[in-house]
Amino acid sequence: MATHLSHFSNAKTNFSINTKSKLGRSSAPTVVAAAQNQSYWASIDAEIDTYLKKALPIRPPESVFEPMHHLTFAAPRTTASALCVAACELVGGDPSLAMVAASAIHLMHAAAYTHQHLPLTDRPRPKSEPTVQHKYGPNIELLTGDGIIPFGLELLARSVDSARSNPTRILRVIMEITRASGSQGVVDGQYKELGIDGSEITGLELIEYVCKKKEGELHACGAACGAILGGGAEDEIEILRNFGLYAGMVQGMTAKENPMMEAKIERLKEMALKELGSFDGKKARLELISSLVEPSLCAAYT
Amino acid sequence: MATHLSHFSNAKTNFSINTKSKLGRSSAPTVVAAAQNQSYWASIDAEIDTYLKKALPIRPPESVFEPMHHLTFAAPRTTASALCVAACELVGGDPSLAMVAASAIHLMHAAAYTHQHLPLTDRPRPKSEPTVQHKYGPNIELLTGDGIIPFGLELLARSVDSARSNPTRILRVIMEITRASGSQGVVDGQYKELGIDGSEITGLELIEYVCKKKEGELHACGAACGAILGGGAEDEIEILRNFGLYAGMVQGMTAKENPMMEAKIERLKEMALKELGSFDGKKARLELISSLVEPSLCAAYT
């Protein structure tokens, strides 16, 4: 498989590559397509929400589960979760197979977001971020994050009870998610972003590194997990992982709203679409998934 | 199986039950036995250390992995890890099968310990605890804990690559560990201990609840995981889980050094030994594992 589909990367659709275009420029047909794409991602998000609300009811001890519930849904969305479901569908899997992994990815993201915004004595609040509203004090937010991380992985491990589950695939997904959210992924990005690691890299290079480790690797993980759970072939998993990495970086870097990054973002979009161009799949589905790098979609999420 | 072995619970050994005895009272033969028991647990700890040091080298990014390495080994020991290995051996499994789970339990414990001792703006330092030495600032300690949790579970998920591994058992162990270390286990205990949940329980009842959720459930988890990985029968797993719960509570409550808790501790020891009394296993091994509730062993760990 994995043949280059020239009709895909050259098609005159909303996902066609035009490295010369300004971010956000759009014509009427693109607006329609963009709305369709947004509704695709929004419908996946709604399903993940439904799943999470059922999995995470406010139950005793309420003092623990109420903040857990709140902070899970208070964290901004990451498209890494929806990408997990979309990738599963793209490789021909039933999207419901990816729902637990997509939820676990959101939970890891919500815990990381909560901890990154804890006001600590030795942590200057990042200049670029608006003041985060805290419903709880740091004590509760810290422990709640600590409860959310194992909860996400518990959900995954428990999903083995489902008749359609595959233990080896679930373990592989746990490996992917723990690696992406841990010390070689999101946590490394947070170290760099918070400037606590004495790193030599600065400026745009630093932003790129942070976006790679945070949004990039989380999206790469989401895409790979979806492909694994959907029963994708190894080359499909790797194509989707690469697409996720680039698309996640586009998402992260677009959110920085730094005009000096536009060229780099365009290059990453191109790389993302090139990966998909080598994917032997249904054109309509490829169009939907490729819309992840579109400015309107990025804007809806950031 | 699971017949009551009267020779065990009535034996005149260091693990015999004497609810009238003062904690720590010992005669000469008991001292010898206690030394043997301590060396048993110490040898398991040394193996876990060796495994962890190999699994967690100081590698790039060093700014992330150096604190991770340090905080993993700076946390006090929990016998829940060694109990995991001992339980595996008791049900007839090769103890090496439990080494990853034992290490993961230590990692969860180390992360929880690190986060519980973070100086937060709304967190009064617990009166009963000595001042904890911090090598790093709260910023680094927070993120390092966040890296340690997924790392422990990643090690477990990765262990499926071993030829002798059993994916279903590993998933079950991940479920056990995430549940015990999350919002219904250790995190719940921390909420209560830090007094941030508006709980109605106070005094000795509160201490008992905290010790149940923290040391109790972590030891129950350790014992159950060891029995699962060693291929124990369901009733063996449950006996060892109960033993672990009581033994962990004994460990936690003994550390409080509160004379008003002595009677309760003795009752828990009795319950722990009664569980083992219904276990159909080698007497010498049962003696070793039962030594977990002995005061000299508790003292060595707290």
From TrEMBL, chains A, B:
Which is one GO molecular function term here?
metal ion binding
Q: Does the keyword Transferase apply?
A: yes
Sorted alphabetically, which keywords does the UniProt record give? Answer: Magnesium, Metal-binding, Transferase
This protein's cofactor list reads: Mg(2+)
GO BP: isoprenoid biosynthetic process
Pfam families cross-referenced by the UniProt entry: polyprenyl_synt
Protein family:
Belongs to the FPP/GGPP synthase family.
This protein is called: Putative geranyl diphosphate synthase small subunit type I
Print the organism lineage: Eukaryota, Viridiplantae, Streptophyta, Embryophyta, Tracheophyta
